[in-house]
Each structure stands twice: as C-alpha cells, then as structure tokens.
Amino acid sequence: MSTKKPRSDSKLDNLQELQLLALRDGLLDRTFDSYQAALDWLDADCGVSSSAAALSGFWRNHCAPVVAARRQMAAIRAEALGDAMREDPVNWDEAIIEKTKQLAFEFLDSETADPDAIKKLLDAILKAKGQELDERKVVLLEGKARLFDKLKDTVEADDDLTPEERLKKIREGLKI
Amino acid sequence: MNLELSILQTLDDASPRLLKFAVLEAETRLATGDLLASEFDRAISSLDRKRQIRLHPGEDVTRVAITDAGKERVASAK
C-alpha cells in the first residue's frame, strides 16, 4: 500500500460535497477575501491543511469555469440590450447604447449586484432621455417661431387691420 | 497556462465587452496564486505592446479589452 502523502490540491478536490461547495462559493463571492482566509477556514472547519498553490488549482478547476460561464452570458445579455435599444423609437445615441451595454454587462457579471452600477445605468438612461426631450422641445419651438414670422408678415401686409386685430389673428394662428 | 494566456483567456470570456483592470488583476491573482503586482504589470505591458489587448482609461476606472490578435493567440493555444 502506498504511503505517499496526497497532493494538497487533490485533498481539496476530495472535500465533502458541502465543504467543496462552501469553499467554491466563498471564493466566488469573496466571503474569503484572501487565500489565507480560505486556508484558515479549511483548517478550522474542515480539518484540512492546504496551500495557496493548491487553492489556485482549485480556483482554476472549480471557480474559473463558473466565472467564465456567467461572464459569457452577461456579455450576450448586454449585446441583446443594445439590440433592443437600437430598435427603440426613442432613437438612442450609439455612444449611450455602448455605455449602457458596458454598465449592464458589469452589473450582470458581478457576483452581487452593485447598487452604484444600477444607479450609473439609470443615470445614463435618464440623461439620454432628457437630451431627447430637450431636442424635441427645440424642434417645436423652432416650428412656432417660423409660424409666428409667417403670421406676422401676413397681418402686417393687411392695411385694413387694426393693431388689436393683428394681435388677435396672430394669437389664433399660434393657438394661444 | 502562462500568465499572458491566462489574462487573454479571461478577457476573451468577456468579449466583446471590457473588463475593469482591477477585476482582471484580482482574478488573475486567484488563478495564479502568488502573483506579484510587477509581474502582472509587465504582462499587461507586453500584451499591449503586441496589440493583443487594448487599454481604455475611463472617467472612473481603466478597462481592458482583448483585440483580434489576442483572440487569435487564445484560439491557437487551444
């Protein structure tokens, strides 16, 4: 029978299922903010002594695939959000779409939702919406200004109208 | 897996989106164990020189993206 000491990383692979999942999730959600914290937990709660090198191997085998899958899905969802914004009648600016996609990706990619990321996303959308409304107001005001000039020229050309009648006709034309 | 390839693989998973520099550094550190900050910075500089990554300094943080050349290196390593 071999008396060879088991490799430190294989000890981690052979943890009880609940312990293995606790280690994986603790590393993923940063409950263990360092490998030393994870090593201390392994020693105290699982009776397993390990090493930082073994934890790196554990990360590559058990955590990195979870992060990669979540990240790839986050990237796909962010692109889909951008596609939806391009089809929106609001006619979003391409720079805003790009910024929104990046912030959405970072939000979806994080283990825990970061409130700051949500706020930045909403701020960007509201800012873009505000710009859109401002642009519409400018278009409406420019139209009214052109209509006023036209009405003014018309009433001033009519010498039979009194100043009050001219003002009344302009008001009626502008619907004010 | 060598350090540069590990960085490129992490960025490739995020593509076409960018990763925050700090996130990339933290995950590379987890995957490689005892990584020195200077080793990571050297690898980033080397990848940038080879145009396999692109650095995007932003208002708040710097972000990093993989380029087509970087994607080719990841594909050829598989």
What do these coordinates show?
The complex is a heterodimer of chains A (176) and B (78). By secondary structure, chain A is mainly α. The longest helix of chain A is centred in the last third of the chain and has 43 residues. Chain A is built from 7 helices and no strands. In chain A, helix 4 runs antiparallel to helix 5. Helix content of chain A is 78%, strand content 0%. Chain A has a domain of 63 residues. The model of chain A has no long low-confidence stretch (mean pLDDT 83). Chain B has 4 helices and 3 strands; from the N terminus they run H-E-H-H-E-E-H. Chain B has one domain: Arc Repressor Mutant, subunit A. Chain B is globular, with a radius of gyration of 11 Å. In chain B, helix 1 packs across helix 2 and helix 1 crosses helix 4. In chain B, a hairpin with a 4-residue loop joins strand 2 and strand 3. Chain B has a 3-stranded antiparallel β-sheet. With 78 residues, chain B is of the alpha+beta class. Chains A and B meet through helix 4 and helix 5 of A and helix 2 of B.
